[in-house]
Model the fold of this input.
Amino acid sequence: MAKKSLKLNFIYNLIYQLLVIITPFIVTPYISRVLGVDNVGLYSYSNSIVSYFLLFAILGTTTYAQRSIGYVQADKEARSRKFWEIYIFRLATVGVTLGAYMLFVMLGTAPEQRIIYLILSLNLVNVIIDISWFMLSIEEFGKTVSFSILFRALNIAFIFLFVKGEGDLWIYVLLTVAFTVGGNLPLWLFLPKYICKVKGIKPFKDIKTVLQMFLPTIAVQIYTVLDKSMIGWFTEGYSENGYYEQAEKVVKITLTLVTSLGLVMIPRISQKFKEGNLAQVYSYLYKSYRFVWMMSIPIMFGLIVIADTFVPIFFGDGYEPCILLIQIFSPIVIAIGLSNVTGMQYFVPTGKQNILTLTVVIGAVVNFVLNLCLIPFFHALGASIASVVAEFTVCVAGFIYCLKQKKFNIKPIFTCSWKYWLAGAVMFVALYLLKMALTVKVWCLLVLFFSGVVLYFVLLLVLRDNLFWEILRTGFGMIGKIFHRRSKAATAGAPSESDTATADMPSENNTETSPLSEIEKRGDSVPSENNTQEE
Done:
């Protein structure tokens, strides 16, 4: 199988992440007004309950697939065997989980809400249909992203056509889930190209490793979903759930830009680790950390300064508590971005999932205890504070492990961020002063947004930030190649093979030497294939 371009995969994933951002910004203002805060809260609460069952249906197989198939992605027979082992394993877990879920729906839900829970059961069925985990593991981002874009666009159109009032919550839920399932079905048409018939399939042979991947997922679920459930348990009605859902949604949407590089890097880091190329592994990691700083700092400052303008325009009347919630939530983009690199791009590909489990368990305990203390008194506000503290706890715990084990040099991760902090702070002050001269209008919000983006990146140009300059050179270079290929195709009939090749990002012969010099001096080596687990 031909080696995929990291640049191209990153662009595909970035397009998809931008679509993930754009979709709620189109739909949410409409849904907030049409369905109302209580219906939004009901959907948030019921979806949090379904998420627990979904957790057991997937059972850590997505992360396991990214790593294990990433190791053997060049071997068609080996990756085919891995695919069928994981898929059959998923069939078994979904069968058991779906049965338990239906029992819960019949015995544990109010009759008037049962239709919502039954529709959400399609999310469990989707675990069987969804093979995007395989496509992403072999770095085939183009097809996955293309169908996701198509079905998301259809979903938006159908929501505006058929969701007209508060009684249409079930239609909104059905459309959301149905188009998610529909976006995964076409991927099966391409599957025969990447797999072959194999013998000796043993779907349960790696169950111990799968469970190790599952444990951190449980912990993550505690402090990403349990808070919504606990708000519902400790408060009357669903309005607090509605405030929390909308505020968290805004922040988590922007977070997709920060973590967009991570999904692309996991299979490639797994491959380089298996090959024994630690220098390239660490080079990828340092670049990922720097990318997180570059994207998360302006997002945090931007959310804080525009929240009071954004909420009335975006959500409408009745959502004023979301202003403070968004401002409190905003630092979470930095914490999750950094811990995503440490956990998903380093611990998982290098076989240290036990350490990932430990860090997220610590965060989950912190979140649960703070939720118990804060939600009964402060409701959604208390849950927001607990979530932020928990995410920073996970981030710090991961760095403490790396620092004590001396796996790689921690200092460059933080020293490289000063330009982003400086540019972000200047942007914050400028936007705050500009906002004082504007009113709460849509055009004012757009002025604030575009002014912030332009000012921040102009400051990075002035400060001559290496990563931003590299992204610009890469972008202009790819545009130039596209026009070059089209020009040659028009004159010669078809592009040559050399013209169509694309380079990886970053170049393997151009690793960042300053942080790596410490590693090379210590002479670190990669554990053998049979010794990738943390001792």
Notes: The mean pLDDT is 80. The CA atoms of residues 11 and 261 lie 9 Å apart.
